[in-house]
Amino acid sequence: xxxxxxxxxxxxxxDFLGLRTGKGGATEIIYDDGVARRIVWRVxxxxxxxxxxxxxxxxxxxxxxxxxxxxxxxKRAIAVERIAG
Length: 85
Prior knowledge:
85 residues
C-alpha cells in the first residue's frame, strides 16, 4: 500500500475513516467519531487499496458509519480484526 486514504463524513458529522500502514507493515482502518469513539481494525490478506477505499467512501457517507463499514467490507470479502477501541 503506497498511499494513505482518509474520508470525512459529508453530512456535517465529525465521522472520520482512514487507511494507514501500521506497525509491521499491516494495513489498518481507523474510525473516529470526533467525540469519544476511536476504533482500529487490522486488514487481513492483501486487498487492493481501491477496494478498501471504495468500502470506506461508501461507509463514511452513511448515517451509521461502523455498521455500514462492516457491510461494505463483507460485500467485498475483506477480513478485518479489531485491535483497538
